[in-house]
Amino acid sequence: MGLTDLRLAFLGTGAAFSPERYNGAVAVNGRLLLDGGAPLLPHMHRCGIDPGAIDAVFLTHFHGDHTLGLPTFVLYRIFVDPRPVTIVGPEGVEARMEALFEVSWGQDWQLAMRHRFNVTYQAAQPSGTAAGYKYDSVKLDHGTSGSNGYRIRIDDRILAYSGDTEATAPLDELVDGADVAIVEATGPGDVFSHMSWEAASDLKARHPKTRFLFNHVYAGTVDGAVADFQVVEV
Ligand SMILES: [Zn+2]
To answer: Would you call 65 a catalytic residue per the annotation?
Structure first.
C-alpha cells in the first residue's frame, strides 16, 4: 500500500444499453471524474462527493453513455460552485462538449451560461498534466474512432482507466505496471467492439500485480466487477 489510498466511487457501472446498471462514471478521491455517463449530481450526493470539488474530468471518448451526465454537472459548476475545472478528452474535445451543452440548453447556453463556466479544455497528449495531475494517454481500439485510455499518477500510485476497448495489445500497454486498473468487461462471449469476460480474466492473469476492477457490464456480473454506488478504497 502506498502513502495514499485511492477512493474510487463508482457512480455508474453499466454498458450503454444495460437494463440493470447506470451508465459509467468514476470519481477518484473526490477530485477527478473519469467519464460522465451516470446521473452525476444525485449519484455524487449518494457517495458523499462534492460536485464542486472535481478538478478534472477525463473523457475516454464521446459516446453518449460516457458523456450525457455532463450537461447538468456543468450547470452546477456555473450556478452553484464556479471553481475551475479542466476537461480532458480526445482531439476535438472542446467542440464536441460545447455542441453537447448547446444541444442541452439551447440559446441559454451562449447567452446566459457559457461566460460563467470556468473551464479549460485540453486535447489529451501522449503525456500531459491536467489540474496538476500527470497522465499518459493510450489510444485503444473501440468502434471507428477509438477511445483514449489514461494512466493517471496520483501521489505515488498509477491508476489506469480504459473506458471502452477491445482486448487488443494497447490495453496491455495501458495497464502494464499500474497499481490499479479500472477496465471494461461488457459480457460473456462475443461483445462487438468491447471486451468479453473471458478476455478480462486473461488480462488479469497476465498482470498479476495490478488490482483490477471491472465495469461497463451489460447484465449479470463477473468476478472482479464493481456495482453502482460501490466505493472501493485501494
Ligand atoms: Zn463507447
So the answer is: yes
